[in-house]
Amino acid sequence: MEARIGGRVAGVDEVGRGPLAGPVTAAAVILDPGAIPEGLDDSKKLTARKREAVWGAILATADVSVAHATVHEIEELNILRASHLAMERAVAGLCECPDHLLIDGTMLPRGLTLPATPIVRGDARSFSIAAASIVAKICRDRIMVDLAQQHPGYGWETNMGYPSKSHRLALENLGVTPHHRRTFKPVHNILYQEKIVSS
Q1: DSSP letter (8 states) at residue 8
Q2: 119 contacts 125 by C-beta, under 8 angstroms
Q3: Pairing of strands 9-15, 100-104
Q4: Are 7 and 125 spatial neighbours (Cβ–Cβ below 8 Å)?
Q5: Burial grade of 14 (CB within 10 A; 0-12, 13-18, 19 or more)
Q6: DSSP assignment string, 134-154
Q7: pTM for this one?
Q8: For the chain: N or C, fewer Cβ within 10 A?
């Protein structure tokens, strides 16, 4: 796909739309066509160990940028717009300006000023989007592991903020942290219940 387009093509992907806590993270990657990392594939198909190995090779050979949208921005904008904002920031952070963008998904972020193509299931169809998906996932996972140390009991080091059963139970028992997305229904419902009880 990148070869057909020609020039400097950046793949862009995000991770973290579904979690109840933490930022949404995006990555933009321009691969060196002569140094495609061995084993590069859709991040969901790779083991954690393989992802780490490929991640190191991507950082060593490609132009990589990572960006985030905060919990506050997710609450203010909505999760779709916030994920697009993270993508826009990731593209803006690249060392070289791309000639074309390949965006994972069905929609293009409205703030982009470069030629771009949306690719459904792009991480399985484009090397550069696959690379972006790996980078975004590893970076966001590391953020959640750090947050788990600050807020033990929610299991973020393993569920990464997604609404697992253990995370939902912890929400009910421990309450809402500043890193929870208050506009997401499970979090909102707990806050609403607390408000009723306190009033």
Answers
A1: S
A2: yes
A3: parallel
A4: no
A5: buried
A6: HHHHHHHHHHHHHHHHHSTTS
A7: 0.94
A8: C
- Candidates 141, 197, 150; CA nearest to 177 is 150
- The strand order across the sheet containing 9-15 reads 63-69, 24-30, 9-15, 100-104, 116-119
pLDDT number for residue 1: 87
Percentage of the chain beyond pLDDT 90 is: 91
Residue range 158-189, pLDDT digits in tens: 999 999 999 999 999 999 999 999 999 999 99
Q: What does the block give as tokens for 17? A: 């739309």
CA–CA distance, 128 with 173 (Å, rounded to integer)? 42
Q: Strand ranges (DSSP E) for the chain?
A: 9-15, 24-30, 63-69, 100-104, 116-119
How many residues are listed for the chain in this entry? 199
**Rounded Cα gap, residues 199 and 196, in angstroms:** 5
Residue type, 138: I
The DSSP output letter for 180 is B
Per DSSP, the three-state class of 15 is strand
User: Which residues, given as ranges, of the chain have pLDDT below 50?
Assistant: 197, 199
Q: How many CA atoms lie within 13 A of 108 on its CB side?
A: 14
